[in-house]
Amino acid sequence: MSSHHESSLACHSLAARLEKEGDVSVADCYQCGKCTAGCPAAEDMDVAPSQVLRLLQTEAPKHEERALKSMAIWMCIGCETCVTRCPQEVDLPRTMDFLRQEALARNVANQSADDVVAFHKAFLNSVEKAGRLFEFGMVGDYKLRTGHFFKDLGIAPTMFFKGKLGLLPHGGANKREVAEIFARARAVKKESQQ
Amino acid sequence: MTNLKIGYFPGCSLQGSSRDFAESLLAVAKALSIELCEVPEWNCCGASSGHMIEPLVSVALPINVLLKAQKAGLDQVMAPCASCYNRLATASYEIAHSPTTKAQVEKVLQTSIGKLPRVLNVVELLAQVADQISAKVSKKFEQTVACYYGCLLVRPAKITGFDCTEDPVEMDKLVAAVGGKSIDWNFKTECCGASFSVSKTSVVGRLGAKIMNDAVVRKAEAIVVACPMCHSNLDLRRGEINQRLDAKTNIPVLFITQVIGLALGLSEKELGLRRHFVPVKFPAKPAAVAAVP
């Protein structure tokens, strides 16, 4: 594979790194479009799933940048329909995971994706702190990150009275152990990319 | 009937917004003499957010759970939440197929990883005891329902190895085993929007509306699920769905464990039925008409 651009993370194309780090070969895609046809989120995407693969296939920096800055990578729900139906078994969900990570690492994530990013961060932050997800705390964190203070206030009381909204985090997990898993995973990931 | 002992990974949703799933599962397991041994000190599997932005964490967390189960002497772990099930199964698959990932996770968890417990979902477990369930039915579940499998119970096949990816039938068989009927419909495995419930509620409304519409048009009296996200997106988010459909759909959404529990004669309270947003009520059946001589 050719190596066009020289970004902070070595001079490999995203396609080459995806093959090495994620065992996904975008070259296998012959653009049949089946992934796009069955994608439940395709209509909300600025770049169709099959086009995301095409952008990576060219290995051109401007195409890679378009994929990284797309809203499409954040609208992917991770339903696994595309890879299940792909005649070439190209793992598109994993490609999306890789692109999301890369977009965050390069700080180029689409601004319209702020809410989605905030949700994922609030979710993992809650798990990192308590070992288990604390839903009420996570939603509070999400609201602070996004400013959507009034969203869903309507259903909260019903959830509370139905016993579906716990106001205190759950014990039971080994908090320290989980926090260490997060820390070491980040360190190992960093090390592997050097 | 031999007693079945199996590892149990509740997952975070079952402690919070899907307590009804946990309650009904535990009640049904008790009635069927299935011993569910909770994995000691279990942690969150990382769910969708983990693999979406921190892939290594998303493998390390589930493997940590499986290692704890193994230490406790459990050779099978059942995860009722479809997302937890999928994450546990995906992590096991990656450890078995990628030496690089395995080495990285071993570094993260500071231990070597040997044979891991087998991961199974709740439908798989109940299917194993379908005969016992049939034999214990005290009150037939005489409803016509739409079995909704969603995404992560069946996809991708190489990870789950469970049922059929496009037209799964295992839940339909369980409904039949307790006297119910299930419809043929188009949205069995279509996505409900999953974790977008909070951050992209409009997507959940749009996808949920399509699912609900097909179920209602085909005269389902309820939707049956085996996933906390499918449940909350179709039950708790019914307001958005109805707004989009410009209709007042009121068919309830039941966990498969609640359907079985009702047939086994368990109470509404034991099955957590009062926690639903859409009340669990079924239309009265017309009295049987005597044949005209």
Using the coordinates above, name the CATH class of the largest domain in chain B: Alpha Beta
| Tally of DSSP helical segments of chain A | 11
| Strands of chain B, count | 8
Which architecture of the largest domain in chain A does the CATH hierarchy give at level 2?
Orthogonal Bundle
Name the CATH class of the largest domain in chain A: Mainly Alpha
Total of helices of chain B: 14
**Reported CATH architecture of the largest domain in chain B:** 3-Layer(aba) Sandwich
In N-to-C order, the SSE pattern of chain A is HHHHHHHHHHH
pLDDT average of chain A, as an integer? 91
Overall SS class of chain A: mainly alpha
Fraction of residues in H or I helices of chain B: 40-55%
The domain tally of chain A reads: 2
| Shape category of chain B | globular
Distance between the termini of chain A: 20 Å
Taken together, the total number of domains of chain B comes to 2
Helix percentage of chain A: 55-70%
**Helix vs. strand class of chain B:** alpha/beta
- H/E series of chain B, N to C? EHEHHEHHEHHEHHEHHEHHEH
At CATH level 3, the topology of the largest domain in chain B is Rossmann fold
From the alpha carbons, calculate the radius of gyration of chain B and give it in angstroms. 19 Å
Give a written overview of the molecule.
The complex is a heterodimer of chains A (194) and B (293). Chain A has helices at 14-22, 34-38, 49-58, 61-68, 72-75, 81-85, 92-105, 114-130, 135-146, 156-161, 175-192. Chain A is mainly α and 194 residues long. Chain A folds into 2 domains: 14-108, Orthogonal Bundle (Fumarate Reductase Iron-sulfur Protein, Chain B, domain 2); 113-192, no CATH class. In chain A, helix 3 (49-58) runs antiparallel to helix 4 and helix 8 (114-130) packs antiparallel against helix 9. Chain B is of the alpha/beta class and 293 residues long. Chain B has 2 domains: 4-122, Glutathione S-transferase Yfyf (Class Pi), Chain A, domain 2 (Up-down Bundle); 138-275, Rossmann fold. Chain B has helices at residues 19-31, 47-53, 55-71, 82-97, 99-109, 122-128, 130-136, 157-160, 170-177, 196-199, 201-217, 228-234, 238-245, 256-263; strands at 4-8, 34-38, 76-79, 118-121, 144-147, 181-182, 222-225, 253-255. In chain B, helix 3 (55-71) crosses helix 4 and helix 4 crosses helix 5 (99-109). Chains A and B meet through helix 6, helix 7, helix 8, helix 9 and helix 11 of A and helix 2, helix 3, helix 5, helix 10 and helix 11 of B.
